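Good day; I would like, with your permission, to put a structural problem before you. A protein sequence and the structure tokens that stand for its backbone fold form the material at issue. The record follows directly beneath this note:
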Amino acid sequence: MSDFTFSHRRDGSYRVESYEGSENMVVIPSAYEGQPVTSIADNAFSWSFVRKVVIPDSVTQIGEAAFSWCESLVSVEIPETVRIIGEWAFIGCSSLRSIHLPDGLKKINYSTFQSCSSLVSVEIPDSVRTIGPEAFSECRSLTRIKLSESLTSIGDNAFASCDALTEINLPNSLSELGSEVFSGCSSLASFIIAPDHPIFCEKDGVLINKKEKRLLFYPFTFKDKVYSIPDGIQFVAEEAFANRISLEEIIIPDSVTQIEPKAFYGCRGLKTMFLPSSVRRLGSSAFHSCSSLREITLSPSLMAIEYSVFYACSNLESIVLPDTIRIISPCAFSGCGSLNGIRFPDGLIDIGESAFEGCRSLESVELPEAFETLGAHAFGSCTMLDSAVLGSRIRTIPPQAFSRCENLNHVVLPEGLEEIQSEAFESCENLLTLQLPASITEIDPDAFSNCRHLMLFVYPDSYGENYAKDRDILYSEI
């Protein structure tokens, strides 16, 4: 027993606090100093080199991360007396091939078996009602799992990246599925669901929450080039089609009102998309990395282009923004290297950080009169951009807003502009002239760094004139 450290609990029992031995096979003692050992502490065996562990039937609780990252652990015997297994209890046990879970266990906690990459099969006892977030995520060898007939809830990413999982049953008791539960399950082709399930159904192999009218999962194994979302669906769930590279066209019915984040992320074969007027929200990263997407018609009901929606859509050449758009969020079109033109609607008021950064084919920008706020790096590295006209309500040009726009040669700054921040026009080598409005009160010292041929047109005795003198920049009075 000298290899174990114990602590005395209030009820008189003992808890295993740590194991310092070097044995491959470890049998945890059932008693210490005549009293039962009833629990295993948080991190008790964490990062140890044990291969087999036998837990006595005196134990009722296994603590958080108790066996975390025991990468040599092949087998663990958990007695039927255990009622609680803590979060991360077996995370990273990459040699663990099978596990028997005791009857009486009510919950499989957060990340309990995450990254158990050799785990092949699991049977969930009928006492389990909840599977927590990421409970079995990255169990890449898991081919079979039987869910409890009393299971009511499965948390976010519970089975994410279980590459070998081919089918799974969803019992009638199941009422709640978190987001991205089966994200990256590239072999999952079948859901076993009773026809009378009150919430979930399988329609032509696609998992649907029929109560919420939400399409949840389109199998990776399908190789069709065109898919029509069923009429009546209102929501396309997060990552529902993510990385389905065979799809070239997805037809969306006018019942759909919301496309959730990452819904079509990484659909590298997708070429065209039409969003009907019923779509009121397009979630962040919805079309991120759809590198073959050339054309898309946006819904006239949208009010914002959210974060990274079209990030790295490298073949997107043009897009018409509906007049309803008020906000273009950060990184919305970043990396759209083929985008050569875009008309900003009159009601647009905000463009976020890096929204068009790296749009190497974009040639001109004209912001509407109502426009107010421009984010840092908004048009950075737009190497073909030659003209930028800013709206009259903008007060600040943020850091690197037009940095490395090496072909930029025509910029109109509005009267009312007050500040030009750090490297706003850095390395705009073809910017030969720029008129500074009288309203300017602050310009960062390096706002025009590496603009070697720039001449500023300034008002006499203005801040702009003093700035040019102090920075030894060529200038002329207006």
Remarks:
- The mean pLDDT is 97.
- Helices lie at 463-471.
- DSSP finds one helix and 43 strands in the chain.
